[in-house]
Amino acid sequence: MKITILEDSDSELKKLKKELISWSIEKNIDIYINTFNSGEDFFAKPENYSSTIDLFILDISMKKMSGIEVSKKLRSQDYQGEIIFLTAFKEFVFDGYEVHAFNYLLKPIDSTLLRRCLNEIAKKKYSTCHVYRDTKHEMISIPYTEIIICSVNRHYVDITTKDNVYTQHIDLSELLKILPNEFIQVHRSYVVNMRHVFSVTHNKIYLSNSTVVDIGRTYASSFKKEFLKYSTRFNRDEEYY
């Protein structure tokens, strides 16, 4: 997660960075933090801004350019990400509605409230992807729509997409708990994404990448029931959850 902070108080900045790093370790989420002590410093170099920044944390009462002014300039550049304001005065809350602020945090910052904000932003960012650390301890983000099959590989699980195979150290049953409902176990060694099922016979599943998977007898009944429900969801004008 990319975070940019504009805060002109060194002590407040130090506390904020400490909280962010603590949260990232707890949640096992990599964060990249850039800091500036004024809006003028931030906008001085065009490369400081990127539309891929997930979150701006802006002190409203900076000496020159205020956090509100910074946010308006960001939105004028079509920034679509999240903005959190830091303020010592509640009355500033109403000044940020026009820039669609995610939240306001009163100083001194309540770590519980900050973590709630970060949790919600992370949930929004990663809700369409499976995120984990690979065997090299690098963060990997795989869109759910691209995952075709997850298969047991000794003490690991191979997550197969059209172009790659990603290996994660996890039990298949634990992985299934965090995948969306369109993923279903069809064998003690396989979980498939129903959006990638091309055809089904009595005991085999044919997937979009030409993989053929056996349906385990224990899972046959539940798979056929769920696949029928998934395949006819639009006939019932509903989403599959």
What layout of secondary structure does this protein have?
Blueprint: E1 2-6, H1 10-27, E2 32-36, H2 39-44, E3 55-59, H3 67-76, E4 82-87, E5 103-106, H4 111-126, E6 129-133, E7 139-143, E8 149-153, E9 156-160, E10 165-168, H5 172-178, E11 183-187, E12 190-193, E13 197-200, E14 204-207, E15 212-214, H6 220-231
Parallel strand pairs: 1-2, 1-3, 3-4, 4-5
Antiparallel strand pairs: 6-7, 8-9, 8-12, 9-10, 11-12, 13-14, 14-15
Overview of this protein structure:
By secondary structure, the protein is an alpha/beta fold. It has two domains: 2-126, Rossmann fold (3-Layer(aba) Sandwich), CATH 3.40.50.2300; 129-231, OB fold (Dihydrolipoamide Acetyltransferase, E2P) (Beta Barrel). 29% of the residues lie in helices and 29% in strands. The chain contains six helices and 15 strands. The protein has helices at residues 10-27, 39-44, 67-76, 111-126, 172-178, 220-231; strands spanning 2-6, 32-36, 55-59, 82-87, 103-106, 129-133, 139-143, 149-153, 156-160, 165-168, 183-187, 190-193, 197-200, 204-207, 212-214. A five-stranded parallel sheet has the order 2-1-3-4-5, sandwiched between helices. The longest helix has 18 residues, at 10-27. The radius of gyration is 23 Å and the shape is elongated. The chain starts with a strand and ends in a 10-residue tail after the last helix.
